[in-house]
């Protein structure tokens, strides 16, 4: 077995500590950051930056970014283990990431996988029996090491082979953070990140609209639609259309750049304001949508009439509201 481990890196404290504990035993740790529009998306297209960041900040051997959006959206449609309090499929999310990490093991010549999971920290996905189930479902029995709680769990293959010294691993359990914070200070961490993973599918302000859109589209959601669901103002219109309005110039540009050429856009003709993008479009909702564009443009909302451009496939027409 190679003395190299893949770390499922969430950017949270626990995954950092797990990686540093294993690296301290002379094992090369490769931090793998799986990303989708719902988590880790700020690293999209920044593979070199990520690699440099994990090497310089934490002393890991390397960093790898892996976009799993298509597989994730397919899973999110109907996760076998269901959802958490919002639209978060925590168990199936972890199984998917571990399966993807297993595929990377041969490519990166790694011998085993590590995570920052702690027994009993999260009721849905980190109880002892659930952790065992996840390991089995991912096909990683004996190859998945959880350093922070290893002494509470069955011995893994890298421990049995002496590659990892079990006596240097920990027995943390429960929801408390004191031992992690103490360990962070002992390991000389410069910054203490929050324990949350930052998944938008757990966000009560964003998750409900993502769930609703999935229901309307019967789970047939594309990668660009998934990204568009994570920002802007959203409106489900009476005729069945779904409209997104940019809240600032940056979001306006983002909507325009990520959508396909045949998408339908709305823009005020001569006044600054939000860009409107239909994620789904029905002609009968056009005037309603145009009025929303006017309403959210401070310089237009009090005018008696404005001109709104309807743009698709490079062609434009005008309506007046």
Automatic annotation (TrEMBL):
Q: Which GO terms fall under molecular function for this chain's record?
A: ATP binding; CCA tRNA nucleotidyltransferase activity
- Name the coiled-coil region(s): none
Which stretches make up the NFACT protein RNA binding domain?
Answer: 232-317
Provide the alphabetized UniProt keywords: ATP-binding, Nucleotide-binding
InterPro entries on file: NFACT-R_2, Rossmann-like_a/b/a_fold, ThiI_AANH
Q: Any idea where the Thil AANH domain is? A: 3-151
The question of whether Nucleotide-binding is a record keyword is answered with yes
Q: Which Pfam families match?
A: NFACT-R_2 (PF18297), ThiI (PF02568)
Under SUPFAM superfamilies, the record lists: Adenine nucleotide alpha hydrolases-like (SSF52402)
**Record protein name field:** Uncharacterized protein
Q: What is the scientific name of the source organism? A: Thermodesulfatator autotrophicus
From the broadest rank down, the organism's phylogenetic lineage runs: Bacteria, Pseudomonadati, Thermodesulfobacteriota, Thermodesulfobacteria, Thermodesulfobacteriales
């Amino acid at each position: 077995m190679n003395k190299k481990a893949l770390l499922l890196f969430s950017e949270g404290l626990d995954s950092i500590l797990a990686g540093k504990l294993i690296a301290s035993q002379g094992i090369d740790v490769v931090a793998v950051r799986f990303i989708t529009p719902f988590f880790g998306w700020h690293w999209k297209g920044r593979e070199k930056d990520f690699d440099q960041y994990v090497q310089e900040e934490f002393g890991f051997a390397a960093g790898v970014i892996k976009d799993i959006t298509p597989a994730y959206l397919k899973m999110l449609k109907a996760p076998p283990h269901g959802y958490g309090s919002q639209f978060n499929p925590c168990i199936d999310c972890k199984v998917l990431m571990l399966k993807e990490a297993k595929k990377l093991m041969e490519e990166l010549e790694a011998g085993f996988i590590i995570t920052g999971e702690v027994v009993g920290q999260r009721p849905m996905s980190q109880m002892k029996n659930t952790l065992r189930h996840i390991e089995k479902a991912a096909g990683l029995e004996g190859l998945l090491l959880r350093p922070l709680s290893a002494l509470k769990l069955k011995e893994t293959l890298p421990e049995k082979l002496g590659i990892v010294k079990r006596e240097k691993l920990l027995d943390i359990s429960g929801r408390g953070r004191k031992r992690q914070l103490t360990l962070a200070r002992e390991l000389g961490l410069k910054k203490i990140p929050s324990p949350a993973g930052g998944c938008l599918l757990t966000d009560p302000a964003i998750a409900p609209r993502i769930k609703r859109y999935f229901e309307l589209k019967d789970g047939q959601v594309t990668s660009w639609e998934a990204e568009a669901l994570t920002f802007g103002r959203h409106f489900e219109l009476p005729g069945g259309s779904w409209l997104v309005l940019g809240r600032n110039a940056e979001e306006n540009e983002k909507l325009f750049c990520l959508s396909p050429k045949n998408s339908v856009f709305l823009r005020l003709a001569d006044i600054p304001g939000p860009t409107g993008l239909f994620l789904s479009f029905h002609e009968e909702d056009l005037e309603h949508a145009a009025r929303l564009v006017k309403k959210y443009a401070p310089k237009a909302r009090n005018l008696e009439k404005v001109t709104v451009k309807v743009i698709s496939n490079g062609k434009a027409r005008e309506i007046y509201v």
